[in-house]
Amino acid sequence: MQTDRRSIAVPDQSGQDHDRPIRGLHGVRYQTNDVRRAVDFYTRHLGFNLEHEQLPAFATVSLGGFKLLLSGPGASGSRPMPDGRRQDPGGWNRIVLQVTDLAREIEALKKAGLKFRNEMETGPAGRQIQVEDPDGNPIELFEPAR
What we know:
- By secondary structure, this protein is an alpha+beta fold.
- It has one domain (about 30-75, about 90-145): 2,3-Dihydroxybiphenyl 1,2-Dioxygenase, domain 1, CATH 3.10.180.10.
- Helix content is about 15%, strand content about 30%.
- The chain contains two helices and nine strands; from the N terminus they run βαββββαββββ.
- The protein has helices at about 35-45, 100-110, and strands at about 30, 50-55, 60-65, 65-70, 95-100, 115, 120-125, 125-130, 140-145.
- The strands form two sheets. Strands 5, 6, 7, 8 and 9 form a five-stranded mixed beta sheet that branches. The chain has a four-stranded mixed beta sheet with strand order 1-4-3-2, with helices on one face.
- A hairpin with a 2-residue loop joins β3 and β4.
């Protein structure tokens, strides 16, 4: 039986992956109109660390083991698609950051002048709210239910 090279191989009984084409998560890419401004936002307001910077086109910020790739208009990861569609900031897919006290975070970020997409929502798994970076990319802040 031939393995589809696009699929993720399942470990065998020994726990080893054989010929696994996908090695793991590298990061999440967000489009931005101003990389410097985006770096400042993520490092100042959300506690990310600057990992790599090639202004004005690109930067990588990290939080724990997570990497967020910030691509400006001149980055290779921002070029138009062959059919002409542009890769613009915004949308509804988002990173989700876990917080310990959502109400306190909302208060602090509102004082800093950040833009929220909604009010805090509560569900069976916890509470969440969406805040936007300067380019309109969404970040969900999530506090798990106790």
